[in-house]
UniProtKB/TrEMBL annotation:
Organism: Ramlibacter pinisoli
UniProt cross-references to SUPFAM superfamilies, sorted A to Z: Aldolase (SSF51569)
Gene3D superfamilies referenced in this protein's UniProt entry, alphabetically: Aldolase class I
Family assignment from sequence similarity: Belongs to the DapA family.
Protein's name in the database: Dihydrodipicolinate synthase family protein
Signal sequence bounds: none
């Protein structure tokens, strides 16, 4: 597996973790999900993220799932593994295991216990020490889930102090100004250029983020082809086409981003598409109401009609 580097671009899809109806890991669905993602043209995969229910997996399950994904991918695309943890022993152990299994790099978000810029910077100094000089990593900035506000200044400080941090997963909201400032710093030569992939609101600002200098997307959606096609259209200079495609998917993408039920929505839609066998979400997790299901049926029908009209 090729190691992650700062030239990464395209769509690194954040995957769900498939379970059976009884809550066990569903490895056959995992294989099917990997095949589905690759068939839709994703550039890479990111697993064991927040929407992958990483915090609900045991250490043994995390490694078993990672090994299954890597075996199915078989080196065709890079795979990034989330290893965020308040404790560095568990972070280091999981990192060594997944890198030995063939991962391309790891992703780390700050724990909720760090608050000031100095605390945040010191934490990531320890991340560098824990991962070592050979493991490329992605800095995840997702204050909605972590509760940690990383200013533009502290992100620049982390990147300057972390030569093996090759990617920023930009998920602050609102975050367009931050994205512009970080990209401007590298354009001016104040910072080495790193890959910036966006996951803001599940891609709800993707066209604008691409215009601001993002290299692609790292987020999840039950229609990964949306992100693939939008990023490709934007890259070839057809910005209006990128916006038209994005607009067609936006109502369903917005519905999927509801706090509380978003993961259940995504898993339901993936089950409907035949990707996973069960929409089971481990506790604590939401269940969809009959009204939710009716909303989704309507939105899918309208999306299909809009896409047919766009050709």
């Amino acid at each position: 597996m090729k190691l992650l580097d700062s030239t990464a671009k395209g769509v690194y899809l954040i995957t769900v973790t498939p379970f059976t109806d009884t809550g066990a890991l569903d490895l056959p669905s995992t294989d099917r999900m990997v095949d589905f993602c690759l068939d839709k043209g994703v550039t890479g995969l990111t697993i064991l993220g927040i929407m992958g229910e990483a915090s609900k997996l045991s250490a043994e399950e995390s490694l078993q799932y990672t090994q299954r994904v890597l075996a199915r991918v078989d080196g065709r695309v890079p795979v990034i593994v989330g290893v965020s943890s308040p404790g560095f022993a568990s972070m280091g152990e999981l990192t060594r295991s997944v890198m030995d299994a063939g991962a391309s790099g790891v992703m780390v978000a700050p724990p909720s216990t760090v608050r000031t810029d100095d605390q945040i910077a010191a934490y990531f100094d320890m991340v560098n020490e824990t991962l070592g000089p050979q493991v490329p990593w992605c800095l995840q900035d997702h204050p909605v889930s972590t509760g940690v506000q990383m200013s533009t200044g502290v992100i620049l400080r982390i990147l300057k102090n972390s030569p093996i941090c090759v990617m920023l997963k930009h998920e602050d909201w609102p975050g367009l100004a931050k994205l512009s400032a970080i990209r401007a710093a590298s354009d001016k030569g104040e910072l080495r250029r790193v890959s910036i992939l966006t996951g803001n609101g599940g891609g709800l600002f993707l066209p604008e983020e691409l215009t601001r200098g993002a290299d692609g997307a790292m987020t999840g959606f039950a229609w990964p082809e949306m992100m693939v096609d939008v990023v490709a259209a934007h890259a070839r200079g057809d910005v209006e086409r990128a916006h038209d495609l994005f607009d067609a998917y936006l109502p369903l993408a917005r519905y999927e981003q509801q706090a509380g039920i978003g993961l259940a929505v995504r898993k339901h839609l993936l089950q409907q598409r035949g990707v996973i066998a069960s929409a089971f979400v481990r506790k604590p997790g939401p269940k969809l109401s009959p009204q939710d299901l009716a909303d989704l049926d309507r939105l899918v029908r309208r999306q299909d009609a809009r896409l047919r009209a766009l050709g």
